[in-house]
Specification:
There is one protein chain. This protein is an all-alpha fold. Helices cover about 70% and strands about 0% of the residues. The protein has one domain. It is built from 23 helices and 2 strands. It has a two-stranded antiparallel ribbon with strand order 1-2. The longest helix is centred in the first third of the chain and has 34 residues. It starts with a helix and ends with a helix.
Length: about 500
């Protein structure tokens, strides 16, 4: 294995591969930072450009875009309260609050470091124990996916801020939204009111951009003619210190392992991993009351978790030919186009390509860290722009991001509608994050619950007879209990 990895590193640093990896990571960061341009979209759009490339080069470019885009989403999340990707939605909670305090450099630097740790840990696990993780992931059926979704939904109480009741109401609203569209089992239209654009439900990107970006823009419009309050970042003190980084390593490593595990489960993505890691960090932190106010752990945990998914999602892809998420589904297509068949034989027949990919993931994460830290000064200039300039830019990016997902004006109107809803919610101090979490996990919970009931011929015994399901449901109860205790302690 060591010899193959060294050979892979030699391949990665060759003139035929390395420049493409650099371009992939840098391009991925830009794609991720732009609202609406997800990692999935970036890889899908650039896939045709790799058709004529040599196999290793093609995979390295796409993997670089994947790594860069997942991290890039945190940049706009921290600076503009506009998650570039759904995976960065949890980063908004503490990242934006820290930027408002003039510590944008610290938030961005810890985001880059946490993303690096998550990516490296997941790559190590991909190389060393991928067959074990893949075999475990295969044990997941509908009952297990339902329990995982319930565990994710239990986080709503933790991200509800000062009022768990308002958070739960927002979560219920999100679950209601998630039922719009065709029934997942019978395909009967629900709450579509004859509108064909609603048959696939409300797309997550327009809802996400509306609730966070547009809503914040509407709030700031009220103050657009007020004297500007300059937000300056002291770069000597603002960057995260070595002492702070070391103190955050435990939460970053733990979140990276959680993210890798979630990534290795087919169908679970970086957005779910980010919220699960955020909740776990808050549940076990000694500073749990500081979460949501600009806590460094609240940035490190979701960023390490969502980047942990990058390696984890490739575990079932390479070992079993089963993609872990939407991006690796596209990578599966890239492998097939290159004449490669994912699975155990891939390691035997094309070890040079496999270990070249492994090495490029290592190097790609290092490049992502370098670009992230070197770009902090440039990124921070965004918060220093006057409101009369930055608000029109946010609104424009929001409209473009909402439209670009499906090239649909309907999605633009959805974005505007949820911008209005988010504005009202901010006025009544109701959190928006529970809506996003419910919209992401609601369909997963509903469809898998109904499939599980069909599997058990109308019974619900799977809730207490399947060990993995029991563990996740127990974790959900523990999460709810800890949130209840924390609320009463406050």
């Amino acid at each position: 294995m060591v010899a193959l990895l060294l050979n892979g590193l030699h391949t990665t640093f060759s003139l035929a591969i390395f420049p493409f990896l650099v371009l992939g990571v840098a391009g991925g960061i830009v794609i991720g930072a732009l609202p609406g341009l997800t990692a999935t979209m970036g890889v899908a759009v650039l896939l045709p450009l790799t058709f004529g490339m040599e196999s290793t080069r093609a995979l390295v470019v796409l993997a670089g875009i994947y790594i860069g885009a997942i991290y890039g989403g945190s940049i706009s999340a921290i600076l503009l309260k506009t998650p570039g990707t759904p995976a960065a939605a949890a980063t908004v909670l503490d990242g934006y609050e820290l930027a408002r305090k003039g510590e944008a450099a610290k938030a961005l630097s810890i985001s880059a470091i946490a993303s690096f740790v998550g990516g490296i840990v997941s790559t190590v696990m991909l190389i060393t124990i991928s067959p074990i993780l893949a075999n475990f992931a295969l044990r997941f059926g509908a009952p297990e996916y339902f329990a995982l979704a319930v565990f994710g939904l239990s986080i709503i109480a933790s991200i509800s801020g000062k009022s768990p009741v308002k958070g739960l109401l927002a979560g219920m609203f999100g679950l209601l939204i998630s039922t719009v569209g065709l029934d997942p089992v019978t395909s009967f239209p629900r709450f579509t009111f004859g509108e064909i654009n609603l048959y696939n439900g409300l797309a997550i990107i327009p809802v996400l951009i509306g609730l966070f970006a547009l809503a914040e823009a509407f709030v700031q419009m009220e103050k657009i003619f007020e004297p500007a309050r300059t937000v300056e970042t002291d770069f000597k003190r603002g960057m995260v210190s070595l002492k702070e980084t070391i103190s955050l390593l435990p939460v970053m490593i733990k979140s990276a392992f959680i993210g890798t595990f979630i990534g290795s489960i087919p169908g679970a993505g970086a957005d779910i991993a980010a919220f699960v890691c955020y909740n776990e960090a808050r549940r076990t932190s000694k500073k749990s009351k500081e979460f949501g106010t600009g806590c460094l752990e609240g940035i490190a945990a979701p960023e390490a978790g969502n980047n942990g998914v990058t390696g984890g999602a490739m575990v079932p892809l390479l070992t079993l030919g089963v993609p872990g998420d939407a991006v690796t589904a596209i990578l599966l297509g890239a492998l097939v186009i290159q004449g490669l068949q994912p699975g155990p034989l891939l390691f035997a027949k094309s070890p040079d390509i496999v270990y070249g990919l492994f090495s490029s993931l290592f190097v790609g994460n290092i490049l992502m860290l370098v670009f992230g830290l070197l770009g902090v000064r440039l990124f921070c200039r965004v918060v220093e722009l006057p409101k009369r300039i930055i608000i029109p830019v946010i609104v424009t990016l929001s409209m473009v991001g909402a439209y670009s997902m499906n090239n649909s004006l309907f999605d633009v109107w959805v974005c505007i509608a949820f911008g209005g809803i988010g504005y009202i919610m901010q006025k009544v101090e109701m959190p928006s994050s529970p809506i996003i979490l419910a919209v992401i996990l609601g369909p997963m919970a509903e469809s898998n619950l109904r499939r599980a009931v069909l599997m058990y011929e109308g019974g619900y015994s799977f809730l207490w007879t399947r060990p993995i399901t029991v563990v996740f449901l127990a974790l959900a109860l523990l999460s709810l209990y800890s949130s209840y205790k924390r609320a009463h302690a406050a």
